[in-house]
Design a protein that fits this description.
By secondary structure, the protein is an alpha+beta fold. The protein has 2 domains: 9-84, Ribosomal Protein L22, Chain A (Alpha-Beta Complex), CATH 3.90.470; 91-194, Ribosomal Protein L22, Chain A (Alpha-Beta Complex). Helices cover 24% and strands 33% of the residues. The chain has helices at 28-38, 99-106, 109-116, 120-141; strands at residues 9-11, 14-20, 48-50, 56-58, 65-72, 75-82, 85-92, 152-157, 160-166, 177-181, 187-194. Strands 1-2-6-5 form a 4-stranded antiparallel sheet, covered by helices on one side. A 3-stranded antiparallel sheet has the order 7-11-10. A two-stranded antiparallel sheet has the order 3-4. The protein is globular and about 50 Å long. The termini are far apart.
Length: 200
């Protein structure tokens, strides 16, 4: 039996793997195969299923773990942690000519104002950072962006995004930990988690 591949990153016990991705595919087969290696199980025997909202969940005897994955462009990120609820997002940084209008329509007003104040050269990367952070939290929560991107507000503190306010269904901002990074040139990623599991 070969050992599972080492994670590319680890954040406070949450392991993250970076995998190649073929655009146009869902990524679940690759995620399932890697998780099978991690737990020394054939992919088809892995107790992984999607809940009613489509969120992947590990079931007994692995129900103490949580996993999530995201893909964009030619990369897939898979996160795995124990005793927590997590979400991950990766985005290929590509031209988006209407980021200001998108922020005005879908983001919290304070975030839209922050983006408007950014120099032209940094507005797109700032938008992608906010998008990744919001997606990561909402994927951990289990609702995805349908919950409402405006229902959580991030602000930059000492160069890092931090959740400053959120709808009560998400708990409190203090419940959440967020990590941002550049998994490779041209991509941005965010990982969010909280210890308590939020009831669907």
């Amino acid at each position: 039996m070969t050992a599972a591949p080492a994670p590319d990153r680890a954040f406070d016990g949450v392991r993250v793997w970076r995998l190649p991705h073929r655009p146009g595919t869902h990524g679940e087969a690759a995620a399932r195969a890697l998780l099978g290696e991690v737990f020394a199980l054939p992919p088809q025997a892995l107790p992984l299923a999607r809940d009613a909202r489509g969120r992947p969940q590990l079931h007994a005897p692995l129900d103490g773990f949580d996993c999530n994955w995201s893909h964009s462009g030619q990369r897939l990120l898979l996160a795995l942690g124990e005793g927590l609820r997590l979400g991950i997002d990766v985005e290929l940084v590509r031209p988006r000519p209407r980021v200001a209008a998108l922020a005005e329509r879908y983001f919290h007003p304070d975030e839209a104002a922050w983006l408007r104040a950014q120099p032209d050269a940094t507005r797109l990367p700032a938008f992608v950072r906010l998008w990744c952070a919001k997606e990561a939290v909402l994927k951990a929560h289990g609702e995805g962006i349908a919950f409402g991107l405006e229902k959580l507000r991030f602000a930059e503190h000492d160069g890092r995004l931090r959740l400053d306010a959120c709808a009560p269904a998400l708990g409190t901002p203090a419940d959440w930990t967020l990590r941002e990074w550049t998994p490779e040139p041209g991509y941005r990623a965010a990982l969010a988690w909280r210890a308590a599991i939020i009831a669907p």
